[in-house]
Amino acid sequence: MIRYTGSSLLFLSLSLTAFAAQDVVSAVSGTVKKVDATTKTIVVKTADGAEHTFHFVGKTTVHGAEATGEAAQDAFHGLREGSEVAVHYATKGSEETAEEVDNVGKSGLKATEGTVSRIGSGGKTIVVKTADGTEETYQFASHAASAAGKDIAAGSEKSAKVTVYYTEKAGHKIAHFFKRAKDAM
User: Fold this and answer.
1) pLDDT for 94-115, tens place per residue?
2) Are 177 and 167 within 8 A, CB to CB?
3) Is residue 20 part of a domain?
4) pTM score, two decimals?
5) Do 115 and 175 have their domain in common?
6) Other C-beta atoms within 10 Å of 80: how many?
């Protein structure tokens, strides 16, 4: 019995350590400069000229890219050089691993521009008022909530001008990425 309890405590301790060591997910947006199917990587160049190399893994998801024919079966789901993307990634050592890639270009995710009018309790939704006065409510995708919080907080939590990149699922708008408007920076 003591041996069983000791083993259980060791397992629990190791599980908690592994949970605490999970990487923080960050986001960056830019243009795909290179796609390398052999190494399963993409190079993204940001507006400030920095280049990031992201590794694709089995759990990497891609939203807003063409996923027809062969593109649906490749790791990049139709992303190409020149695609405008937002990459949600985790860093382990010097390696950046893509958790989610959102195609935010003209042929990618839907986009709405507006002003943040309120953030829902618990931080799971956000309401954006568009130029015509319509208020649109978006639910946050898992990675979007932390990225939006950082980006919007850089100005003000309300009245920040943003572009929301989203998908629609079961009648709900799911926000995947937020970008503060250039004139608000």
Assistant:
1) 899 999 999 998 888 999 999 9
2) no
3) no
4) 0.72
5) yes
6) 13
Q: What is the pLDDT of residues 84-94, one digit of tens each?
A: 999 999 999 88
AA letter at 113:
E
Domain with 152 in it:
110-184
Count of CB atoms situated within 10 Å of the CB of 19: 8
Q: Which of 113, 87, 106 is nearest to 30 (CA)?
A: 87
Same domain, 137 and 179: yes
Tokens of 78: 């139709």
The CB density around residue 150, as the number of other CB atoms within 10 Å, is: 12
Distance CA 147, CA 178 (A): 7
In contact, 174 and 141? CB cutoff 8 Å:
yes
